[in-house]
From TrEMBL:
<protein>
    <submittedName>
        <fullName>Cytochrome P450</fullName>
    </submittedName>
</protein>
<dbReference type="InterPro" id="IPR050196">
    <property type="entry name" value="Cytochrome_P450_Monoox"/>
</dbReference>
<dbReference type="InterPro" id="IPR017972">
    <property type="entry name" value="Cyt_P450_CS"/>
</dbReference>
<keyword id="KW-0408">Iron</keyword>
<keyword id="KW-0479">Metal-binding</keyword>
<dbReference type="GO" id="GO:0016705">
    <property type="term" value="F:oxidoreductase activity, acting on paired donors, with incorporation or reduction of molecular oxygen"/>
</dbReference>
<keyword id="KW-0349">Heme</keyword>
<keyword id="KW-0472">Membrane</keyword>
<keyword id="KW-0812">Transmembrane</keyword>
<dbReference type="GO" id="GO:0020037">
    <property type="term" value="F:heme binding"/>
</dbReference>
<dbReference type="InterPro" id="IPR001128">
    <property type="entry name" value="Cyt_P450"/>
</dbReference>
<keyword id="KW-0560">Oxidoreductase</keyword>
<keyword id="KW-1133">Transmembrane helix</keyword>
<comment type="similarity">
    <text>Belongs to the cytochrome P450 family.</text>
</comment>
<dbReference type="GO" id="GO:0004497">
    <property type="term" value="F:monooxygenase activity"/>
</dbReference>
<dbReference type="Pfam" id="PF00067">
    <property type="entry name" value="p450"/>
</dbReference>
<dbReference type="InterPro" id="IPR036396">
    <property type="entry name" value="Cyt_P450_sf"/>
</dbReference>
Length: 501
């Protein structure tokens, strides 16, 4: 017994000494420490300041609020992470001195199941991907996106209508329903492939799973298995996931080959455009790299948009006056037959402002990681080379220093025609990041969300169901629903009642 207690005390002593020693590398910087390295989940006492998944406890926000210069550290055993909300320092990191900061790709390697891509590379390797990918996201290609987003929304509305007819009302878990629509869009726009989400289709010859099942299993389990299990054990411990990952790859390879065999056809999906753009370049990407890029578009492109739409639906439930204003605008700008054009998009000032305001209050990506190449001075502190940084998007966008009434949902602050409109510091709103590593899909998602929302609002009124006790708590009705941090930050439990107008 005493021996065991002695061992535990010894281990604790080592944890305390290493953690204290690590924190001293950032001379004078205010901060807090936890004894364990960065943990996936919250572990009370040992890892309760910084962890990846769960209900965010706001340790970095509280810390940054308490500092005068918006710079603070969280020490996790043998590593320091510097959190930043100071806009001038953010400007240095993302724009002015961006050459001294790079993306720590470890985090993104786990989701990069098919190798290197735009998201998990740096420097010349990243540039090689970006040059090929940029033309696929050019403005003239968005007509196809608009068309596919409208189709997916129509099919979702049809499905909700059927639910309404059978149950007499339509209460949805927007997590499932909206995600289906954004997955349908990204399937068609990224791969030129209909996953059969709204109209199921048979499994093609040579496969054991449908592409949809393979993709969904890969997205739900593949990343977790990749994170925790050595390669040689995967197929024994997780046979379904291993099959799903292998078949996802087989499907994607086949789509690339199909494109190569049919180069004359005019196609607007991202994969075809990547293959085309790559052909016109020397020393471009291999097929494996193209596949990995398109897979990353799928991961990065559907959940982020779906989560933002969930948050926007929630805010519109809490603010029926905004919903009415939005309805009036959409009714005026959009055609009755539901067609949508880029010029209508530009005219939907209030809808675009609602999307901006949602991205401000609820950025799906709450922090942007960076690492410094060389020792650097930030504010009054000198930070050694190799230190990790997090640009704290969530805090920057909801801090009183940067925004008036920061926790209030007020789209007018983004509507240049409104008296509430204010000109902002370029770094006070960064849901898509900034600088050369800014999200390549930011226009894509803004347009997709606008098309989907315009159709929903024309067709339905939204409210929080009156008979759902969780939705009727004071806190939720006031607009303060629990946030749940997974790969993106989403509402923890949300139900929305759709009533036909
Ligand atoms: C609301 C929607 C979205 C949000 C909030 C969002 C957010 C972000 C953020 C914050 C980054 C920077 C990450 C970092 O540097 O660590 C990023 C990068 C990226 N995003 Fe998005 N994104 C969205 C939609 C999309 C869509 C629709 C696509 C593709 C179809 C996409 C593809 C990418 C890619 C490939 C990168 C890496 C770009 C590079 O490093 O060159 N994202 N996104």
């Amino acid at each position: 017994m005493y021996v065991l207690l002695g061992i535990i005390a010894g281990l604790l002593g080592v944890l305390v000494i290493v953690t204290w020693y690590t924190s001293k590398r950032l001379v004078g910087m205010p901060g807090v420490s936890q004894l364990l390295p960065l943990s996936p989940f919250r572990i009370p006492l040992l890892a309760d300041k910084m962890y990846i998944f769960g209900v965010p406890n706001g340790a970095s926000r509280d810390l940054l609020k308490s500092t005068k210069d918006g710079i603070a550290r969280i020490t996790t055993f043998n590593s320091n992470t510097v959190f930043v909300s100071n806009l001038e320092v953010v400007k240095d990191i993302m724009l002015k001195k961006s050459d001294n900061f790079y993306k720590p790709t470890e985090f993104y390697d786990y989701i990069s199941l098919f190798g290197d891509n735009l998201l998990n590379t740096n420097d010349s390797e990243w540039r090689k991907h970006r040059v090929v990918a940029d033309p696929a996201f050019a403005e003239q290609n968005y007509t196809y996106l608009i068309q596919k987003s409208a189709e997916a929304t129509d099919m979702l509305i049809e499905r909700l209508q059927a639910q309404h007819e059978s149950k007499g009302r339509t209460i949805i878990d927007p997590f499932d329903e909206i995600q289906d629509a954004t997955l349908d869009v990204i399937g068609k726009v990224a791969f030129g492939y209909d996953f059969g989400i709204f109209k199921p289709k048979p499994i093609p010859k040579g496969f054991q799973m449908s592409f949809l099942d393979a993709i969904k299993t890969t997205l739900t389990w593949g990343i977790g298995v990749n994170l925790t299990t050595p390669n040689f054990l995967k197929k024994y411990l997780f046979p379904k996931t291993t099959l799903a990952v292998a078949e996802t790859k087989q499907y994607m390879n086949q789509l690339i080959q199909d494109r190569r065999n049919d180069m004359d056809a005019v196609k607007y999906d991202l994969l075809s455009m990547l293959v085309d753009s790559n052909l016109s370049r020397e020393g471009g990407l291999s097929d494996a790299e193209i596949m990995s890029d398109v897979f990353i578009f799928l991961i990065a492109g559907h959940e982020t948009s779906s989560v933002t739409l969930q948050w926007l639906l929630y805010h519109l439930c809490v603010h029926p006056e905004c919903q009415d204003k939005l309805y009036e605008e959409i009714k005026k700008v959009c055609a009755v037959d539901g067609t949508f054009t880029m010029s209508q998009y530009e005219d939907l000032h209030y809808l675009r402002a609602c999307i901006q305001e949602t991205l401000r209050l609820n950025p799906p990506v709450v922090g942007i990681p960076k690492k410094c190449r060389a020792a650097t001075k930030i504010g009054p502190y000198v930070v050694p080379a190799g230190t990790d940084f997090v640009v704290d998007v969530d805090h920057i966008q909801t801090s009183e220093q940067n925004w008036k009434n920061p926790t209030t949902f007020n789209p007018d602050r983004f509507d240049s025609r409104s008296s509430d409109y204010v000109k902002k510091h370029p770094c006070s709103l960064l849901p898509f990041s900034l600088g050369q590593r800014k999200c390549i899909g930011f226009r894509f998602s803004e347009i997709e969300m606008a098309v989907m929302m315009s159709k929903f609002v024309l067709y339905y009124k939204f409210s929080l169901p009156k008979d759902d006790p969780l939705m009727q708590t004071k806190q939720v009705l006031k607009g303060d629903i629990t946030k749940w941090q997974q790969v993106t930050c989403k509402p923890y439990y949300l139900r929305v009642e759709f009533t036909k107008r």
